[in-house]
Amino acid sequence: MEPAAAQAGNNDEILRGRYLVETTGCNDCHTPGYAAKDGKVDEKLWLTGDAVGWAGPWGTTYATNLRLLMAGMTRQQWLVHARSMKPRPPMPWFNLRAMTDADLQAIHAYILSLGPAGAPAPASLPPGRKAAGPVVQFPE
Q: What is the pTM of this model?
């Protein structure tokens, strides 16, 4: 396992990761209220997941708390995860696969620099199960 300081990366890499997170839409789903508040959410809440569900033929999914997820991953584990995961919609996993290793490592460094925060997102629900909270409904 890499030392925490080495995992976090240097300041330029962290700033690049912040830029990528902000411009590639990560916050749109993974930060509570981000889109509704026109992106004006305190950075201390960024990437802590959301309880708004995304419902469609696949069931209902929730945006992962990336701060908790990344806290348990080394750079290498993140690269493998980002290149192999295929979660249910609406996560655009194919966009992660299109990124360079350097971009993915910068995102990892930035998220680690924020530190763990928040609670895990609700568990996904299978098709036919109604979510308890608010959902964005995709057409069938």
A: 0.90
